[in-house]
Amino acid sequence: MDKVGRRNALKAGVAGAAATALSDPQLAEAKASIAIPAPDEEIGMKGKPFSPIPESNPLDAKIITFTTVSSDVDASVAFYRDVIGMTVLSDSPFPADISSAPGMGQAERCHVLLTMPENQRSAAVRILEAPPGAKEIRPRPESGPNDPGLLVMEGSTRDPAESYHLLASAGTPMISPPRYYYFRNTMWGRDVDVMSYAPFGPGGEQMFITANIRGDRPPPRSPFVHSGFSNAAITSLDQRPVNEFFEKALGLKRTSQMECYQKNTDQLIGAPEGSYFLWGNVGIGVSIEVWEVKAASGTVYPCSLDRTGLAMLTIRVNDLGKCRAMCAEAGIEPVGMGALPNPESKRPDGFTIRGAVGELFEIVQA
Predict the structure, then answer these.
(1) Is 323 helix (H, G, I), strand (E, B) or coil?
(2) Which of 49, 149, 157, 187 has the most CB atoms around its CB within 10 Å?
(3) Residues 26-32: contacts with CB under 8 Å, at least 24 apart
């Protein structure tokens, strides 16, 4: 056999061995993975840019109520009323069949709504009585910011030292004293120059209390020490399914992203030293941050209304029917029907959905 014949026979033998070792789909995938275009070949690529702010929240979604579940309703009411400075809007049980959200149960439960006086921009806080023997949603100290899910409700203060003194004097559990941190949000053209600390309410719910300390900061929204709560943080180990959920369910699109690698923020949120995470907003005006924590592993603790702590966000939309249709088209099934009373309606129309990392969202009509 000449050299050409031997070479062709060798190629045929190698090809036959490869075909035997790999199935047809595997072989096609292997060929595609090593296909290298010519140096002068133009290749089209697609990315996912940040959304322009005017297009980021088509349903005008907004958090209007934070639901906390507490085994001591009186202590929770006293904390938000006497320490934070909120006003009791309503205090009465509600019909057992008003909502079928996870953990709601059929028994009549105590239900208290509190709002901030003279500040309509902040959301209400709902205190829901926990059933006997209720466990925590996010057990402490086992859980931390690397565990995906609904992490905190964030409020503001005119002065971090004054706020911290008030809460410390009331015996409020806290992770650390106020910590300073700075970010530059180049997408929004806004510097984040603040001091924050992380206290825990009587139900076990975690909060951030934040003060804007920039020299050009606007006047405080409220004449009181605290301005209420308006923002929530959702943590994840991969932000992509979380962002996708918000876009499919509510039309919310990611508008910004910043990175965090600061000792002060590790101390603030109770993260291991040297932690690194990305964070930014979905939508404008809805007040939801999505974090991606760079950690090897974490535990999702699904929210439920029969467990203590921060349990649910009530989000108002301008077209509930459209939101239902969007969820149906995306295959996002409601996990509960009906809705609890809120400051805008005693018997709202709504439904409950579960987010990508176990969080609960009660969606109601504006």
Answers:
(1) helix
(2) 157
(3) none
| Strand 309-317 with 360-365, pairing | parallel
Residues in the chain: 366
- Please indicate, yes or no, if residue 152 is contained in any of the structural domains: yes
Query: What are the tokens at 4?
Result: 């050409």
Listed as ranges, residues in the chain with pLDDT below 50 are: 3-21
| Spatial separation of the C-alpha atoms in residues 340 and 66, rounded to whole Å | 12
Cα(12)–Cα(36) distance, integer angstroms: 23
Rounded Cα distance between 296 and 275, Å, is 11
Residue 13: predicted pLDDT? 44
Specify if 20 maps to a domain: no
Q: pLDDT by residue (tens digit) across 188-237?
A: 777 888 999 999 999 999 999 999 988 777 777 778 899 999 999 999 99
The 3-state DSSP class for residue 97 equals: coil
- Residue 54: what residue type? P
Q: Does 18 fall in a domain?
A: no
pLDDT of residue 20: 43
**How many whole angstroms separate alpha carbon 198 and alpha carbon 319?**
35
Q: Which three-class secondary structure state does DSSP give residue 227?
A: strand
**pLDDT for residue 45:** 86
Instruction: Tell me if 219 is assigned to some domain.
Output: yes
Task: Tell me the residue type at 41.
Answer: E
Residue 175: which domain range?
59-365
In DSSP notation, 45-57 reads ----PPPPGGGS-
How many domains is the chain partitioned into structurally? 1
The 3-state DSSP composition of the chain as helix, strand, coil percent (nearest 5) reads 25, 30, 45
Q: What is the CATH number of the domain that holds 284?
A: 3.10.180.10
Closest CA to 302 of 109, 71, 137: 137
Angstrom distance (rounded) from CA 191 to CA 288: 18
- The residue type at 163: S
Task: State the pLDDT at residue 348.
Answer: 95
